[in-house]
């Protein structure tokens, strides 16, 4: 009887493994948020499949010190090449689709997609879909200066999801950016910085934001729904859950 039960569990585990797509994670930007992706994805897979099930993943993890230096030097073509190389390596390793575990580096999403033959699950899409499903249309965006000030993210939310995106003013953008790069990517979570973010959020709400996008994967370490008078959409969690659905299929499928 025990032997039969063990065999049944083994069969179930093998079936679940064979039905899971292999997720290719491009991480390390920073590892603080990549660790959250890994935790969220595996928790969700275990909740779906039960027992000791976990996600089938491959991860390419960058040294963020190198990435951060290239970002602030404006060396985007080199960053693009590195991301494309990582994507190709994950594809060669058997990944079925890619998850880029950072909002900012989706600036290079088109180049990554052009480098491989497997899909990239764009971080802005599950966020946009969740906001639309909530019946909201005007959102405030928090993120790095690169994300807040360039069109690659705001433009996708507008063109693909019909969302009007507000960003903080210049002084507030500098505060949000500094806290990300000087504190959150190093795992430093300070109450004073949480208060600063709360004030930025309040000013966005005063300007008409119906919701707030946590558009940097580290911000979820600092800010939660309790810090905002309007709904908060955490891109890290939404992206991770979309990856699980892509890997396993919709619940009940």
Automatic annotation (TrEMBL):
Entry-linked Gene3D superfamilies: 3.40.50.1860
Record-stated family: Belongs to the aspartate/glutamate racemases family.
Taxonomic placement: Bacteria, Pseudomonadati, Pseudomonadota, Alphaproteobacteria, Caulobacterales
UniProt keyword annotation of Isomerase present: yes
Assigned keywords, A-Z: Isomerase
Protein name: Aspartate racemase
One GO MF term: amino-acid racemase activity
Coiled coil regions in record: none
PANTHER family, per the entry: ASPARTATE-GLUTAMATE RACEMASE FAMILY (PTHR21198:SF7), GLUTAMATE RACEMASE (PTHR21198)
Xref: InterPro entries: Asp/Glu/hydantoin_racemase, Asp/Glu_race, Asp_race
């Amino acid at each position: 009887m025990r032997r039969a039960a063990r065999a049944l569990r083994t069969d179930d585990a093998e079936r679940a493994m064979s039905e899971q797509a292999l997720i290719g994670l491009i991480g390390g930007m920073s590892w603080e948020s990549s660790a959250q992706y890994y935790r969220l994805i595996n928790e969700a897979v275990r909740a779906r499949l039960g027992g000791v099930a976990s996600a089938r993943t491959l991860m390419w993890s960058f040294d963020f010190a190198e990435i951060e230096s290239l970002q602030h030097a404006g060396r985007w073509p080199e960053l693009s090449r590195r991301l494309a190389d990582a994507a190709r390596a994950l594809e060669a390793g058997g990944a079925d689709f890619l998850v880029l575990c950072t909002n900012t580096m989706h600036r290079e999403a088109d180049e990554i997609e052009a480098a491989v033959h497997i899909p990239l699950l764009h971080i802005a899409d599950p966020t946009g879909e969740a906001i639309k499903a909530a019946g909201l249309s005007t959102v405030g965006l928090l993120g790095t200066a690169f994300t807040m000030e360039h069109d690659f993210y705001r433009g996708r939310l507008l063109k693909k999801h019909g969302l009007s995106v507000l960003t903080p003013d210049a002084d507030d953008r500098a505060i949000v950016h500094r806290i990300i790069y000087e504190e959150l990517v190093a795992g430093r979570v300070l109450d004073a910085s949480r208060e600063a973010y709360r004030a930025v959020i309040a000013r966005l709400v005063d300007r008409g934001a119906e919701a707030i996008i946590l558009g940097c994967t580290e911000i979820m370490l600092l800010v939660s729904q309790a810090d905002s008078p309007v709904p908060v959409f955490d891109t890290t969690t939404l992206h991770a859950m979309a990856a699980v659905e892509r890997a396993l299929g919709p619940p009940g499928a």
